[in-house]
Amino acid sequence: MDYNADEDLTVETIIESGVKKYFPEGKSQLGYLKDMDLSLGSFAAENLDRFTNTEGNACSFQEYLKSHGLFSSQYHLYIRTKPK
Question: Which superkingdom does the taxonomy of this entry point to (predicted)?
Answer without folding.
Answer: Eukaryota
